[in-house]
């Protein structure tokens, strides 16, 4: 068994969409419909939605006369209805179930009730600790969400290992001072990153390293 990183970690923070479950198709169906309603080019717009809160995604477009909060709520309601095709990333259920109690959290850009809906659709258990969109003032790529997740676990962010898939989340984890593993299961093209990558969680385990820390190891 080979450690994937050069040092052990005291806690583990997981993005949700694209990292532990596959909601890409469902999210893009809803966002594509929204984009067409507002005259936004779907092909160029969809790659920009991943890993960010709906509020910030919509606000960034600066569409005239648009109530950002109302539109974000519309998106949330449609996403609550559309959970077709949502499944866990390979091995995620087993890996999450084996994590040490009180040492992991989900840190997502989705609203809390949507996160719960998607986790249930994927057949994944609700985590004991979750940071959701409404818990922070500024979403990814700002580090606030991961800093909050670490604080809820009582561990410095620098002692955490973040699992992410999207550029905004990767930037947020880096800004928080955490180490990262990039999950590539939903990537259509090879990712260029300085961080270790995994296609899924099959074969991954945690090996105790002493002093309340664990190494992430692969066969």
Overall description:
Strand 8 and strand 9 (about 215-219) form a beta hairpin. This protein is α/β, with parallel strands linked by helices. The strands form two sheets. It has a six-stranded parallel sheet. The protein has a three-stranded antiparallel sheet with strand order 1-9-8, with no helix packed on it. The chain has helices at about 25-35, 40-45, 55-60, 70-80, 90-95, 110-120, 145-155, 165-175, and strands spanning about 1-5, 10-15, 105, 130, 160-165, 180-185, 195-200, 205-210, 215-219. It is built from eight helices and nine strands. The mean pLDDT is about 95. The termini are close together. It has two domains: about 1-25 and about 85-219, HAD superfamily/HAD-like (Rossmann fold), CATH 3.40.50.1000; about 25-80. Helix 3 (about 55-60) packs across helix 4 (about 70-80).
How do the SSEs run, as a string of H and E? EEHHHHHEHEHEHEEEE
Main sheet summary: 6 strands, parallel
Q: Round the mean pLDDT to the nearest integer and report it.
A: 95
Strand order of the largest sheet: 4-3-2-5-6-7
Kindly, what is the distance between the CA atoms of the first and last residues, rounded to a whole number of angstroms?
A: 5 Å
The global form is: globular
In DSSP terms (H or I, runs of 4 or more residues), the helix count works out at 8
Question: How many DSSP-defined strands?
Answer: 9
């Amino acid at each position: 068994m080979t450690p994937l990183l050069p040092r052990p970690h005291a806690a583990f923070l997981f993005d949700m969409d694209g990292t532990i479950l596959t909601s890409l198709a469902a999210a893009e169906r809803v966002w594509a419909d929204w984009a067409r309603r507002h005259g936004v080019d779907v092909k160029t717009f969809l790659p920009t939605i991943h890993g960010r809160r709906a509020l910030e995604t919509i606000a960034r477009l600066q569409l005239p006369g648009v109530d950002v909060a109302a539109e974000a709520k519309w998106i949330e309601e449609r996403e609550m209805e559309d959970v077709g095709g949502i499944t866990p990333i390979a091995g995620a259920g087993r890996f999450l179930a084996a994590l040490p109690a009180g040492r992991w959290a989900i840190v997502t850009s989705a609203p809390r009730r949507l996160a719960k809906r998607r986790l249930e659709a994927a057949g994944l258990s609700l985590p004991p600790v979750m940071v959701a969109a409404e818990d922070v003032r500024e979403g990814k790529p700002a580090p606030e969400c991961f800093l909050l997740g670490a604080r809820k676990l009582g561990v410095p962010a620098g002692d955490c290992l973040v699992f992410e898939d999207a550029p905004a989340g990767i930037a947020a984890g880096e800004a928080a001072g955490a180490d990262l593993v990039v999950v590539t299961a939903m990537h259509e093209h090879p990712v260029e990153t300085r961080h270790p990558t995994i296609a899924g969680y099959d074969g991954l385990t945690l090996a105790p390293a002493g002093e309340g820390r664990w190494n992430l190891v692969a066969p």
